[in-house]
DNA sequence: GTCTATAATGAGATAGAC
DNA sequence: GTCTATCTCATTATAGAC
């Protein structure tokens, strides 16, 4: 009898079903958080979307805060690798330009967010939400700041005459312009004829490249 | 008896006390909404901060949505006047430069938000929040789009060779960079030595001016 | 105009059976 | 791992006395 119980426990350490359930929950949380924000989302909404019992969300995701952090961190880790990989790969073809650095940061993100994948689309809105709220300071710090530091160093190499203040400001402006494409693209499209994703990304790169380069031309 | 009731009602049509109460409520709502967002804020928080009974918030502000709209619209009206006035005043001194147009849009806002006035500081964060969320589409449309349309026209005059798509994108990037100073200034300050408000605004204007001017140099 | 009291709902979290 | 049931609390909104 007792051995039968033990055997059962051993055999389903993390069962296949639970793995599926856990990632269904994370996906649902990603979608709901991105649509309604942290406070607007409820565990129950998430459970419904995941087609899972309410209690299971807490069981697999922990508290609501922990679940939120987990959702942000999951793709942030992928993103950190994609961005630094892009940087390393481009470095093999000689010294970097300003546009190279910006492109290695922006493109891996936007090409996923603007493309069809609904999960990345949701993630884009979610990050725009996280980034605009000082309350998520700590999440930003853990998930994104390490990569940002790497790219700031690269900017400093490319533009040695520009002060750290200028570079920091330019980088924040760049990130916020990038995120505006996640949350406010409808506004751009409403102002004129909609344009292709690719054109939009090039326009963004033009904008930020020129903006940061200006600091080099007019040191402060 | 009956005449006494009528007299009481007449004498305090909108009494001085009620006017004070109403604006205390709006100020409190502004502060709480800006700190916690729409969903994170509660009518009770607002009532407490206004030192007023819970029921009074509903009485003077209506539903939570209506109160939110009212708070956003209140300063938006002032802002629309300040911005267009700045435009008109500068037009008297000859034709506008690109930087003039951007400055007339950005400066009236940022000089209030970055300055000490806590009410405008709160409003800045609030607008950053509103702007990052498609849910407030309608509020944006009513409160800000008319002014934006005016400034887009001015941009088109200054840069006739640039497509509406490019101008629209450049304007959205500019607005989002501007709003990043409301919500994410701590991030800039964390990256390097903090800089003065004035330097920061000039850096922003340099960035956006160069960014939009680039579109003129490289038409798409 | 202001207050108390309460209705009606929905939230996050947990205990305990299976 | 999964589910039902429930605890505990906070929310918006309103009804009605003063």
Descriptive report:
- The structure is a homodimer.
- By secondary structure, the first copy, chain A, is mostly helical.
- Helices cover about 80% and strands about 0% of the residues of chain A.
- Chain A is built from twelve helices and no strands.
- In chain A, helix 2 crosses helix 7 (about 120-130), helix 6 (about 100-115) crosses helix 7 and helix 7 crosses helix 10 (about 165-185).
- At the A-B interface, helix 2, helix 7, helix 10, helix 11 and helix 12 of A face helix 2, helix 7, helix 10, helix 11 and helix 12 of B.
- The structure holds a DNA duplex (18 and 18 nucleotides).
Keywords:
mainly alpha; disordered N terminus; homodimer; elongated; 12 helices; 220 residues; 0% strand
What is the element layout, followed by pairings?
The structure is a homodimer of 220-residue chains.
Chain A: H1 2-11, H2 16-40, H3 43-50, H4 54-61, H5 64-91, H6 98-113, H7 118-131, H8 137-143, H9 145-158, H10 164-183, H11 185-191, H12 197-217
Chain A binds a DNA duplex (18 and 18 nucleotides) through helix 2 and helix 4.
């Amino acid at each position: 009898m007792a051995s039968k119980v033990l055997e059962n426990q051993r055999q389903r350490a993390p069962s296949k079903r639970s793995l599926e359930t856990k990632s269904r929950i994370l996906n649902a949380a990603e979608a709901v958080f991105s649509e309604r924000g942290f406070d607007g989302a409820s565990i129950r909404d998430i459970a419904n979307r995941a087609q899972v019992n309410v209690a299971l969300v807490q069981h697999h995701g922990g508290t609501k805060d922990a679940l939120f952090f987990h959702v942000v961190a999951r793709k942030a880790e992928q993103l950190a690798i994609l961005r630094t990989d892009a940087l390393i790969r481009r470095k093999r073809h000689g010294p970097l330009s300003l546009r190279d650095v910006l492109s290695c940061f922006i493109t891996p993100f936007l090409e996923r967010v603007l493309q069809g994948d609904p999960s990345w689309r949701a993630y884009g809105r979610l990050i725009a939400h996280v980034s605009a709220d000082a309350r998520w300071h700590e999440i930003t710090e853990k998930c994104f700041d390490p990569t940002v530091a790497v790219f700031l160093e690269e900017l400093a190499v490319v533009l040695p005459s520009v002060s750290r203040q200028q570079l920091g400001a330019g980088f924040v402006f760049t990130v916020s312009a990038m995120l505006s494409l996640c949350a406010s693209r409808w506004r751009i499209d409403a102002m004129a004829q909609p344009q292709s994703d690719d054109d939009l990304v090039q326009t963004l790169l033009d904008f930020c490249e020129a903006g940061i380069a200006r600091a080099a031309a007019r040191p402060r």
